Amino acid sequence: MSKQIKTMDQLKDSKLLYDKKVPPFGYMILITVTLLLVAVIIWSIKTPKIYIIKSSGVVQSMNKNYAMSPYTGEIVTINIKEGMNVEEGDVLFEIKSGDLDLQGEQLEGQKQIYETQIAQYQKLVKSIKDDTNYFNQSNTEDSLYYSQYEAYKSQVDQNTMDASVYKASGYSDEQIENELIKNQNKITEVYYSAIKSAEDSILQSQTQLDSIRAQLDAIGTGQEQYSVKANTSGKVHMMAEYKTGMVVQATQALASISSENDKYVIQANVSADDAARIKVGDMTDVAVLGLTQSVYGTISGKVTEIDSDVSTSESSDSSSPSAYFKIMIEPDYTYLVSKAGDKINLSNGLMVEARIQYDKVTYFNYVLEGLGVLTR
């Protein structure tokens, strides 16, 4: 390369900067930025981004029992109060039944029906055994059983063999004998099947009749007052504010009883769209509404049950019903402890917010998905 002589004006700033040495702090900045980038990449690879579904729920006892009224009647005595602890067998309510006469009339009518059924089926068995239809087709009480006997006879006739037909077809005597045996076996099977069906109906009607007689005996004793007793030990929750003189319906739940040592679950509702993303075993965080999360924290748990079908409920502010799936969440523990050491136990009816973790991805892959480089 030949040497060239340039004036000062021909020298450019870029050349001066290019030839100039980088100061030491410049290398420090480059190294620091590089280390930060590496740290961010490592953090993004190791740290997951968790996708959650938020759902409102309520705390429920797993083995809650209900005290129910066995009859429709008037409350004459109330022996419990809200939150009261009771023992198994304690009398909670005294119910006075005011419609025993009506119940007795209804049971008497049912008793006559089953007694008639038993007599008719016994006549049907006798008709089959005697090969005679003892029923009158024009009688409304006999018409059903008349038809059953005729249906039995039709099956017998269908399986009755005419030996002359087989003989005309060229069957040998031995073959005809075999066919006669087969047909006779079929007729015997139809015979015993018809008798068994009628006798089974007799047994079913007799069972119902025995139950009705037992109820009539209970009514016949003149007992007009019934005790609603606790079927387990625990704390009582009144289903309504009951007063003496109020009338309750048969099988109406009057109170629920739950043990303080019972296990609790969270019943939450999720939308039909969100339910498709949830599965049994998904981890959850549960926050109790009314308690500051920064002070009390949350309770961890997992999804243990998902309804197999959708439920619907009418909404007061919408003409169309809302659809949802009920899920059960089992908490890992049933209490919260504040930073000050105050302990709050879960109890029936507490409202909570369940945050269900249905998916997670590292932040590194999350960025790649956002750039369209990675798909899942």
TrEMBL record:
AprE-like beta-barrel domain span: 265-357
Coiled-coil stretches: 104-131
Transmembrane segments: 25-45
Swiss-Prot/TrEMBL keywords: Coiled coil, Membrane, Transmembrane, Transmembrane helix
InterPro entries the UniProt entry points to: Beta-barrel_AprE (IPR058982), MFP (IPR050739)
Compartments it resides in: Membrane
Bilayer topology: Single-pass membrane protein
Any one annotated GO CC term: membrane
Superkingdom: Bacteria
Family matches, as Pfam families: Beta-barrel_AprE (PF26002)
Keyword Transmembrane in annotation: yes
Family to which the UniProt record says this protein belongs: Belongs to the membrane fusion protein (MFP) (TC 8.A.1) family.
Protein name as it appears in the record: HlyD family efflux transporter periplasmic adaptor subunit
